[in-house]
Structures
1.
Amino acid sequence: MDSLEIKTNDPELQLTAEEQKKVQELTAQIKLDQPNDIIQYGSQVQAKVSEFADKVLGEIKTKDAGYAGELLNNLLFRVKDLNLDSVGSEGGVLSKIPVIGGLFDAGKKFLAKFEDLQSQVEKIVDELHVARTNLTKDIALLQNLYEKNLEYFKEIQIYIAAGDQKVQEFRNKILPDMLAKAQAQGDTLASQKYQDMVQMVDRFEKKLHDLKLSRILSLQTGPQIRLIQNGNQVLVEKIQSSILNTIPLWKNQIVIALGLLRQRKALTAQQEVTKTTNELIQKNSEMLKSGTIEIAKESEKGIVEVETLKKVNQQLIETISETLKIQEEGRSKRKLAEQELIKLESDIKQKLLEAK
């Protein structure tokens, strides 16, 4: 880009030949003896810069690029939520079977969870497509905003350059000439005119200062737009990577995980069957051993054991002895009673004889 050196108070201004021509034309139009011209100088481009800054800020607020980031985080959360080690505790009829019940629940719940997650992920992927499209549109829109801001920046530079050139013209030539004439003439009106012009130039310089502040605002807006563009571009690339790489890779890993789960279920079921079979054989063997020994012992016993006969015989002897003893005692008591009765009869007889 060709540029010409402009003698201004701002060394950062670099203008092309075409822009230099515009500066010269604008400089010739500046009339510092017209207060309204000073007030209105550059006000239109200032208003454009201010309105444009508000528009950019509005775009930043309304374009929620964070939504795309939330979608990516939500996708990551959903994938992590699928726990391959999860095992359910409830289920249908098959879940009640001791050996395979837990395995059935684990596979059933995992598959149900996977199908639900797959549906949710597909929805997220659709939303990511929409977010990517919107972000791509936003990047193009921000590019237009950047170019428009660059136009405002160049336009305000022209106003600043023209204003600086006009100030230099007055400071270096017009004001000194007016001062010299006023001093030579000793005319009060000429002195007042000189002072009025000095004040006009001062106010014009303040106006240029305001323009330079607007120029800084426009200068800052450019990098802000680029930062937003770069952020959106990064999100677009991440979304693109997720759609083309992460999602297919995740699906492949899920297929592998399902295969491993089925494999683990089969292995665990076989291990449980083997364990149960061995336990059953061992228990039957123990029961066979115990039963056989008990039967053998019982078969060697008589119908009535000798000890039982001995005990019964002893009790029988004791019963007979007790019976005999009781009978002997009864006979003795009866004899005594007979003697007592004879005595009583004799006593009665004796009393009766005495009575006669």
Note: Residues 5 and 14 are 7 Å apart (CA to CA).
2.
Amino acid sequence: MDEVTQEFIAGNEAAMRLAVALLLGALIGIERGWVARGQRSGERIAGIRTHALVGLLGGIAALLADAVTEWAFPLLFLAVAGMAVVAYRARMPESHDFSITGLVGLLLTFCFGAIAVAIDLALAAACAVVTAVILDNKREIHGLLNQLQAHEMDAGLKLLLISVVMLPLLPDRGMGPGEVLNPYEIWWMVVLIASISFVGHFAMRLGGAEKGILFTSLFAGLSSSTALTLHFSRLSRQHGQLSPLLAAGILIACGTMFPRILIYCLVINPDLLPRLLLPVSVMGVLLYVPALVIWRAHRQDTKVDRPERHSNPLELRIALLFGVLLAVIMLLGQWLKEWLGEAGIYLLAATSGVADVDAITLSLTRMSHATIDLHTAVLGIVIAAAVNNVIKAGMAAAVGNPGLGRRVAVPMAGSLLVGLGLAWGL
């Protein structure tokens, strides 16, 4: 390829990138112009034309910085910022608008133009689209912020603390007896549990009580099906006519535990998934199908409030306790395996399943990498899930009315027997 051809291609590429810079500016300008569409011509500080030209100017600044002087970009950026500040300052007494969002959007437009020319087109386009979406959803964002409660803000910050701050600081190597304790992996599992609980909490908040028992139960299964079982069982004593729907809700929440187990397996050890998929899926289906049959047969217009959440699921103390529990189960698993072999793992799974399925699931999934074989891990996870659902069925029978207990116990028993049979035969 001769020199003339190379220069021609380079020139066309630069022209294309400048065109993209112009279009990205126009994109943000369209949104800004739409917001200010009620103002007369000349009253808007920056609309579609200004933003398009600022995007183009950012691209030209990047070219000048590369071909003429490195000072071209910062000087032009300061010039745009200065003109924007003067314009917004002059407009402020008349509009009584002290927001600097429009100013920041204009400066970002300049930067996106430079990124499109000098760095990466896809990155610049993605940033511009995200910026336009944020600018366009002012009312929705402010509405969500107004609905946010203090303990939810605290939960979000704590989730960031245990994930963004603490996780990278932990050593990623095996420690302790048999090197079964990896601080990084244990804490990563804590973050995984906390994140799912966090998502489940806000899914229930955004869905609202008007969505009824079905919607509430589905998302409660992401965080605390045990809490929902207790709440619905007590509710059945107060509102007997709701027992069929409440039983369906409990079965749905308990069934949601099984997709959650598959997600853990997929993330931590995908090699375990083919063996675990059949028994876990069947156990979930054997709870979902009766739940939907009961729901369709007894569907009513009556709705109940979602389960109350008196405590924050992301308190750091709870996360630490889960980490300790996870470490203890892994140590016990190693010890019981050396002492009793596979029987020790199954005993540990049954004992752990009384209170919690997540910890033993995560422990066995991680141990299946090297410490135990895949069959033992699958059977142990199924045993833990079965025992956990037996406990919840007992809770429904003891706390709820007789009708609730019967409707919950029969599908639970079927799910348990079939799941254990499939896991044993794999």
Note: Residues 3-143 form one domain.
3.
Amino acid sequence: MTSLSSSRTDRAGASGSEPIPSLRKIIHIDMDAFYAAVEQRDFPELRGKPVVVGGAPNSRGVVATCSYEARAFGIRSAMPAAQAYRLCPEAVFVRPRFDVYRAVSAQIRAILREFTDRVEAVSLDEAYLDVTASPFCQGSATRIAEEIKRRIRESTGLTASAGVSYNKFLAKIASDRDKPDGLCVITPEQGRTVIADLPIGAFHGIGKATEAKMLALGIRYGRDLERLPLATLIQHFGKAGEHYYRIARGIDERPVVPDRPRKSWGAETTFPVDLSDRDEMCEQLAKLAEGVLDKLSRHGLTARGLTVKVKYDNFELVTRGRTLDRPFRDVRDVVPHLADLLARTEAGRRKVRLLGVSFSVLENAQRPVILDLFTPD
């Protein structure tokens, strides 16, 4: 276990005169190289080898995840499979088995709910728990995290890393600090010190584009972010500036929300050869939209929001969307909007390697009331 109150990190108090934020006990559980670990568990011949789960090396697919042996070669999630192959030709490329991953995820989620009903599943392989009021392990969040890790290992044969802190942001940061099979605790007194030393690119929720903008403004670490007035951050980053202002001070009051509502359904595809014909792109988008609409219909849902996703041949990604005042009826109702949204991109003038469609603002098909549609296991 890594404790930031140990000699590895100074136990500095929060800087400034602001009080330490109200205390909660939040745990972030993150499975280690989840898909790849499941494959290595189920197929012993893969253990100890660099395993890449995702597209085939001669395809246009991407890496969903990879084993730690593969990461040693520089392979990372979302990397093109062809690039991963160039980095490690001896890697074993495996197609994803999402039905198996979902089943294992359900096992893990059941373990988490033994300790609290306040579990927010972020994805198949990670979740937040609020154990502030949990009576288990004499109320110690650290001991609860240790017990969760033990039970996951015994039940599934897999390892998980855990972060313990007083809010979601720092619990997430903590879970990344000692992987794999790690346990890291960030106390309330240490929160702002940890954030001050954190490179801005390591802030959860700050993507490459925002990172580049912050670096251009001289914001390299959390301490640089904390120095900026709220008005300046809002000027440069809009509403998100308020969030950055609070995070820089160790303040994150987002609750752990059980059964997080699913806000959209979508599908995407990467093409074997880049597309350059706009009509062909519209046809591909229509096929994707038809499949998603069929899935919505089976769940008794309609949608009023539509988003088109385009990834150009240089991997630049753009999205265009709109929301109607009435639900889409069928794919014929959607096609004109797909063509219009695509026309608002550079698709056709630039080659396209991936297209995607998603529907949002989900409503019950029988009565037009927006649903809290829970993400299925």
Note: Residues 111 and 123 are 16 Å apart (CA to CA).
